[in-house]
Structures
1.
Amino acid sequence: MELTYSGSTEIYERHGLVDVQIEPYENAPIVKENPELWESFLQQPGAALVKATKKL
């Protein structure tokens, strides 16, 4: 699970994804609006925001 939010693209590439971009949580408008609310999530995220293309 740590690979999904560690910043590594290894797990995504292993499943055929290319041009992987991991979006920092801090860039999300909802986090910017209330960073104190999201502080514990940011310390131990349970998901990753990823943009990628599936290799054909």
2.
Amino acid sequence: MTSQREIIVCGQLTLDLIPDLSKVPLSNLQIPGSFSPAGALKFSAGGCVGNTSIALHYLGANVRLMACVGDDMLGTLTRQIIRSHSAQLEAGLRIKHGETSPYTIVLSPSNIDRMFLHSAGLNQSFGINDVSFDAILPGSIFHFGYPTVLPHLYADEGIELSIIMRRAKEKGAVAAMDLAMPDIFSHGIDWRLLLHSVLPHVDIFIPSLEEIVYMLRREAFDDLQRGQNIDDGFLISLLDEFIECGVAIAGVKLGEGGMILKLAEQQRIRALGFPDTQFAGKVIYQPAFEVIANGTTGAGDSAYAAFLYALANNFDFEAAARFACAAGAWCVEAPDSAAGLPDAKTIQMRIASGWQTRPPLF
């Protein structure tokens, strides 16, 4: 199926290197000079652009990407991986000569959460000159990913990021944005000020819970890390803040808790060209679907990709949230993250067959 709207995924792309450390205890990694036999090394195109564009491709979307790689070996490998999924996606890559390609080493020893070693490479300077505005068509969805790990764009209270999102909207696109967890050891960045500067130029904003609590509710972040439950009132206060800034479709990805959305007023939704306005001003909560987890890499990006796919194909907002959570769950279940997604029809058939959801959070 080809979506009615083109979806452009722009921003952070990285090469993920994932050694199999399932049989390596953490203690082994803390002993100088120790030798630990690892399993196979997997390569994948990661970051928001890698995960989201590949997920959209397998869902059946009309998708293009805008991202940069260097002309080094890492860049060549990144291009080969993307080409293995879609030559059309690879065509959106800009090759920067003499620059270093970004990479991320994902360390996941037994029984602990993942750790990441990341080199931003040329993403250190990713900015407005790396966005092909002439290629943004009226009615398309322009999705910008992970400005929180693109230093040039979170500098100066996000002024350049604001310009990128504003110019995309001026081209007639629906502007969407996603975040990654910022460097918690960085100092001097007022994330609230940055978001309040950028969100007036964003139509769809559905970050993950952990990062948005860190950025906007810092006092609650430590409680969240200790496993304290978050209630619906807390989440709705976040959604209201997004909408007050100008967002039309506000949400939070809740991982195994599902997804919560709130829509702006009817006129704002209709201005984006979405025919479904029955949920204008309302909250939608969708629990996650039951699966046996194989890994969480790319699940949030897959869920966001599925939500954008659903809107591009005129799903109503409740169905879009359901489809997004189903795609995220499928990604958690699949061994190959976003690349393991089937086409949209297969996911819809599984939902229709009675796929059980997890107990709701509230």
3.
Amino acid sequence: MARLAGRRLTGFALVRFVEDGDWFADCPVVPDFDGIQVEVCHWKLDELSIGWDMIDTAATITGWAFTP
């Protein structure tokens, strides 16, 4: 986290449903601080995972289907 000191938030990525634009809370939120990605994923009620620069936010997500 010390690497982020003094850096500005310059972007972010998250997964949204195409149908209504709602945020898909089971996927990571990826804020970008001047080229350093922080990947935050919350699971269950008390588990938090934080990673750095591992997720390709430009990749197409496949394998999910909407079933009304």
